[in-house]
Amino acid sequence: MANEYAQNTTMRSPLGRVRGLGSAKGGTHHWWMQRVTSMALLPLTIWFALAAASLAGASYVETVAWIGRPWNAVLLLVTIGLTFHHLASGVQVILEDYANQEWVKLGGILAVKAICVLLALASALAVLKIAV
Amino acid sequence: MSIMQDSREATMAGRRSDGSPVKRPLSPHLQVYDMLQLTSALSISGRITGIAWSVGILLMVWWLVAAAAGPAAFAQVQWFMSSWLGLLGLFGLTAAAWFHTLNGVRHLAWDAGYGYQIQDTYRTGRWVLIGTAVATVLTWLIAIIAWA
């Protein structure tokens, strides 16, 4: 190539590269938090799946009593928080990969995060209302 | 880099982190990939089941909020979840969730640096499929026994 300078120049400083800061500044942290939440969700999801399955056909009173038990409520709250964190970061990656227009990508990510915050708060409030 | 003679070279035009060009294979694209081979089918299924679970989580939100709202609201959730549509949705959600979970464990092993041999990726892929079937059936056995 004729332009040797353009070929080998980068806008990123050597310090920025050493610190692993990509264009989005937090790519490594985002990737890592997806793994952390997935590891935490592994036992929580198995617990919730088995609990939900054994609550099949349970009455309103039985279900509310189960949700209201202190440890169940605590584990439910943690599961809700981690699930929506993991969900939002996963959908964000999918939108970043497949959305071609910038406004669709940014708008989609912001909308998903807003919906996740609202649903997580609604779920957590429901658990707290029953348990407290 | 010289002028490309073959369009397939476009999938080899990568860049190092300092911006200098390098000839190496890039991430696979749909048009050059056989999506029906086990490895790529499971790969995209990981994302599809993630999206399915994201939608299915609405059932958990509805279930919790209705339980907090009172017996009348809870009766509506119970009615939906015991309807044919609800049961079908829950069954699909169970299978999708188990697949995403087990395939996620496979991904964590890759992240830790294990299982990159081609025959290993196929073997662990088959484990994920078998595990999904077994876990889904077991979950529903528990549900059916609890219900009965």
Automatic annotation (TrEMBL), chain A:
Gene3D superfamilies: Fumarate reductase/succinate dehydrogenase, transmembrane subunit (1.20.1300.10). The chain crosses the membrane at residues 40-61, 73-95, 107-128. Signal peptide: none annotated. It is a multi-pass membrane protein. InterPro entries: SQR/QFR_C/D, Succ_DH_anchor, SuccDH_FuR_B_TM-su. Pathway: Carbohydrate metabolism; tricarboxylic acid cycle. It is found in: Membrane. Its cofactor is heme. It comes from the Bacteria. Keywords: Electron transport, Heme, Iron, Membrane, Metal-binding, Transmembrane, Transmembrane helix, Transport, Tricarboxylic acid cycle. SUPFAM superfamilies: Fumarate reductase respiratory complex transmembrane subunits. Pfam families: Sdh_cyt. The keyword Iron applies. Part of an enzyme complex containing four subunits: a flavoprotein, an iron-sulfur protein, plus two membrane-anchoring proteins, SdhC and SdhD. Membrane-anchoring subunit of succinate dehydrogenase (SDH). This is Succinate dehydrogenase hydrophobic membrane anchor subunit. It comes from Belnapia mucosa.
Automatic annotation (TrEMBL), chain B:
Its cofactor is heme. Belongs to the cytochrome b560 family. The lineage of its organism: Bacteria, Pseudomonadati, Pseudomonadota, Alphaproteobacteria, Acetobacterales. It is found in: Membrane. This is Succinate dehydrogenase cytochrome b556 subunit. It comes from Belnapia mucosa. Membrane-anchoring subunit of succinate dehydrogenase (SDH). Pfam families: Sdh_cyt. The chain crosses the membrane at residues 51-73, 79-99, 127-147. It is a multi-pass membrane protein. Residues 1-26 are annotated as: Disordered. Keywords: Heme, Iron, Membrane, Metal-binding, Transmembrane, Transmembrane helix. Part of an enzyme complex containing four subunits: a flavoprotein, an iron-sulfur protein, plus two membrane-anchoring proteins, SdhC and SdhD. The complex can form homotrimers.
